[in-house]
Amino acid sequence: MTVLKTSLRSFFAHKWRMLLSGMAVVLSVAFVCGTLVFTATMNNTFDKLFDVSASNVVISSAEADSADEFSPGGSSGKPDTLPGPLADELAGLPGVDVATGVITSTSAMAIDADNESVSPTTGAPTIATHWSPIDERTMTVTEGAPPEGPDQVMVDADTADKSDLALGDPLRLLTAFGDYELTISGIAAFETTNPGAALVYVDSQSASEYLLGGADEVTNVFVDSDGSVSDAELKETIAAAVGSDTYKLQTADEYIEENSDAVGQALSIFEYVLLGFAGIALLVGIFLIVNTFSMLVAQRTREIGLMRAIGSSRRQINRSVLIEALLLGVIASVIGFGLGIGLAVGLMAVMSAVGMELSTDDLLIEPSVPVIGIVLGVLVTLVAAYIPARRAGKISPMAALRDAGMPGDVRAGRIRAALGAVMTVAGLGFLALTGTVDKASEGAGYLALGILLSMIGMIIVGPALVSLVVKGLSIVLLRGFGPIGRLAERNALRNPRRTGATATALMIGLSLVAGLSVVGSSMVASATDQIDSSLGADYVVSTQTMGEIVPNVVEAVSPEQISELDHVSEYRLVESDVTTASGEKIDVIAGAVPESFAQDIETEVVDGEMEAAYAPGGISVGEGDAEDHGLAIGDEVTVAFDVGGEVTLTVQAIVADGSGMFTGTWLFNQQEFLDNAEEELLPSALYIGVADGQEDGARDALETAVQPYPQMEVRDQAEFKEMIEGQVSQMLNMVYGLLALAIIVAVLGVINTLALSVVERTREIGLMRAIGLSRVQLRRMIRLESVVIALFGALLGLGLGMAWGTAGQQLLAMEGMPILEIPWSTIIAVFLGSAVVGLLAALMPAFRAGRMNVLNAIATE
């Protein structure tokens, strides 16, 4: 009980410093709990939608991709289908009440009167379908009426609101089979939560024509039971009637589970990213908590020595510190859980703002969430406080006779420095090994091990580097401030372990920033170099999302329609199974291109000729694939297309890896595909050559041709490179935003260290003020100390991050991205930004130091 009272008294005596330390736990637990609540709510929302819309048995094509697969191949613009009469055939089976055939496509685009797409900005699809009893389960017509006839269309209420659509407004529906002018006849609202898609309804006959090209087919059949049999029995009856392998049959539970799993898989990426950054923040927070408790223990050395002198055991002292940590962990975790709920609600508001309407009525807080958050926060806090607690337990009763502060263990410090140096060198060695492997997959383990060892090694060796690095920084930055600069330097050097731990927290965040910057810049530099060296086309026409291009656009930009053009090369991605002469089977994403493609893309050939590969009967192979599968010029391979059909081709060219935009891609003549495939795929890009002397008018003609199709983009070579750079920059900016959480925690660590350092030096500060040090000089000294600590962490982090990024680029080089680009402007900006971070972190501690009463400070024990 005495130990508990002592712990409580100490905790509340330092409550503000404790809470500042606890902010790391608060933020991390908030991210963990908020992420878990948000994803659970999203899953719950979709579960309700699937539960309402599911029938007892749902039938789809056996060829349809399963919900958890992603096909990188091209698309025909037509969904996988079932025979149209199937629903009528099933209606007479025992146990069937009604069977409803449905036509649904996600390849259509709806365009309003202002020639703007009404598709969601979230990336969710536009779902085109026909109004059926299945839709009446989830939608209610709120205005007008469902579509009747080929010129009417109905949209969902959320899409109507966002795009300012009303009854009677025109709406174009663009599909692979045509461009249709329609008029809005009705608006329907979701009875459940809107999952974010835009829904466009036409009548059933029009759906067949617009979405399937007039084929007597459907995409799904929803079978409702009459209640006399279970779902499983009804599924068996249908399977016996139509064949168990002919179609994909699912009970309601299986349908809901598969679709929920698909949603969960998509959300899991988002979930893992957020949890990963929460983990980084927790790691950084550990150093903050270790530093806080170490300094508090050091400041209470005499107090703890007196407690030991009057009979307190080592275990009691140890337990006292751990009880303080437990209190900190519990309080911070509970606050973090509350903030996590707010974070989840905030994320739902953001999703609603961009089109996915999520209601707080569906907010789902599973019992495991607070348990996970609080246990995690408490555990991390106790682990971080364990070393300071052990150190406190080792204080002897004789410490009561000394001034505050514990002498450091020089021998232990040397051992730690040696161990850290060995681990750092070993980590850098593993990073260097990434350049010696033949495949990126073989080097991934070296990269992961190198990052882990080098990070741990730098954490351990950091205090030993303080003297060398801080002195170097001081010569450049602090000596110009005279005695104040020297005092700031000595304060930073006074306790290397504390300075090292404080800087390490910042090092972790900045090392990740630097590493990702190097990788991102190298990706952009490699891509732009490949474009410069290989792209010969004057223009590239593609969709904003690099999806498939509908036939209307292909026809609109053809040389027959635009006289300024010399040729247009259509590029199609074809998912295929290639069989070599030896019988080996290879999964390949091949490119089907015309012979004019030789003018649009320049490729470095190891053997053979690309013109022969582009000609009928030929195919090109990447150098790596040729070596792996023993292929040479003249070998025959059989290419079986996933859309049906096959063709035998002869290897006519072997392409050097990393030689251009299509390195590693198997390329063959598109006419071979069109003549032999059972289903035509839409092109994903058009590479355009301009006729001689027509350069001035070609761009305007192309822009005019694609103007009716808002999803299309016309890009010259410079704009194509800007698109690549923009995509990488967007990804990096998102990552940097999340890494800011770790940096915020690191800044809290600097603030806390300085604040505790000011308390520790209260008497010293009072004496300096008494002999003439002004408040301005005192505050400047603390700010300079903070800046040098921040820059120390920045140097370690940026150096380590560049090593990580360079190793990562070595693996990218094996995937066709050979250029290493160090983003010096970013590195310098981050380094200078660290100085600003140091200044900001010192504002509060410097202000408090300046307000100290001189006499009271001198009298402090």
From TrEMBL:
Keywords, in A-Z order: Cell membrane, Membrane, Transmembrane, Transmembrane helix
Residues in MacB-like periplasmic core domain copies: 23-240, 499-694
Gene Ontology MF term list: transmembrane transporter activity
Localisation: Cell membrane
InterPro entries documented for this protein: ABC3_permease_C, MacB_PCD, Macrolide_Exporter_MacB
Region (Disordered): 64-89
Domain ABC3 transporter permease C-terminal residue range list: 277-397, 738-853
Isomerase recorded as keyword: no
Membrane association type: Multi-pass membrane protein
Transmembrane regions listed in the UniProt entry: 272-298, 321-349, 369-389, 415-433, 445-478, 499-525, 734-759, 784-804, 824-843
Broad class of where this protein is predominantly found: membrane
Superkingdom of this protein's organism: Bacteria
GO cellular component term, pick one: plasma membrane
PANTHER family per UniProt: ABC TRANSPORTER PERMEASE YTRF, MEMBRANE COMPONENT OF TRANSPORTER-RELATED
UniProt similarity note: Belongs to the ABC-4 integral membrane protein family.
Protein name per Swiss-Prot or TrEMBL: Putative ABC transport system permease protein
